[in-house]
Amino acid sequence: MGRAGIPHMQVIQAATRVAAEAIGIGATVSTIEVGKEADLAACRVNPLTDIRCLNDVVMVVRAGGLVSRDGGADLRQEPSTSKPKTAPGT
Asked: Considering the entire predicted model, what is its pTM?
């Protein structure tokens, strides 16, 4: 998609938010918002300037825990028992 000239932000949104909405799970995942589940991938550079960095993710946080680079072990010391925080008044 990026090679076709689509802006990097739109490519990332198509792979996350738009895809989740298409399969009916957008209300609970796909964006970083209070009350939603979120997994995060970290790159060495900003993917909006170099989307190729998404091929070399350096860290993943899944379900509140740091996951090893190979996607195997959860590197948390203790299992997380905390629930997502909600905004005041919700």
From this structure: 0.65
